[in-house]
Amino acid sequence: MNECMTVGSLFSGIGGIELGFELEGFKTSWFVEVDEYARAVLRKRFPEANIYGDITKIDFGTVPRVDVLTGGFPCQDISNAGKRVGITGSRSSLWKHYS
Questions:
Q1: Cα 97 vs. chain centroid, distance in angstroms?
Q2: 0.90 exceeded by pTM
Q3: Which residues are catalytic?
């Protein structure tokens, strides 16, 4: 019997990437998402997963290890529809927190 591979998600939004992984047999262990509405959606879609908040305040030494790390870092600062302040903007610079 094969053990399913686990997923950890950064900047999770409502978990679209992870839904795709779960359809292929992966198990999402945890999410990191600061937006409360998105966290409510994640709680409903993935009731067994841990959900963490602000990525800048997480001690990743205490977060369970996973086989696959996913994420879609915030793009509001670099999007043509956003502020266009670049990769060093307050939101887009969070990419540095990928572990």
A1: 11
A2: no
A3: 75
